[in-house]
Amino acid sequence: MMFKDGNKVGKFYGLLLMGFIIMVIIGIVLHNSKMSNHIDIRNLNSLNGVVVKVKADRSSAFGELQDGRRVFFFDSDNYNYKPYSLCKFLNIGDSIIKHNQSDTLYIYRDEKEYYFVLGKSIGE
What we know:
Number of helices: 2
Order of helices and strands: HEEEEEHEEEE
Strand order of the largest sheet: 1-4-3-2-6-7-8
Low-confidence stretches: none
Oligomer: single chain
Helix content: 25-40%
Radius of gyration: 21 Å
Mean pLDDT: 84
Number of strands: 9
Largest sheet: 7 strands, mixed
Strand content: 25-35%
Structural class: alpha+beta
């Protein structure tokens, strides 16, 4: 017999599985609580504001506007710009506009206009 005490091995794998499940549940709860504090800009009819805080988080970004609204920027890419990812492109002080019934976010910085189509890649 290879294992003299198979019960210990079973307990170890059981505890390992329980730990994994607990970590997944904690991750989901933390993610949902972060998302509930922010508005997904894809769900807004229109948006007009100035970015006062922005924090990239994996392939998306969380930000705050001058009027106090907290927004979630879904990842979008425009390969015509460097950096090409919206979450890395956004800076504090950028003016942003999203028109009614549009999926395009316009960013104004240093008297120049930039745009990203939300959830899509441009110029790839």
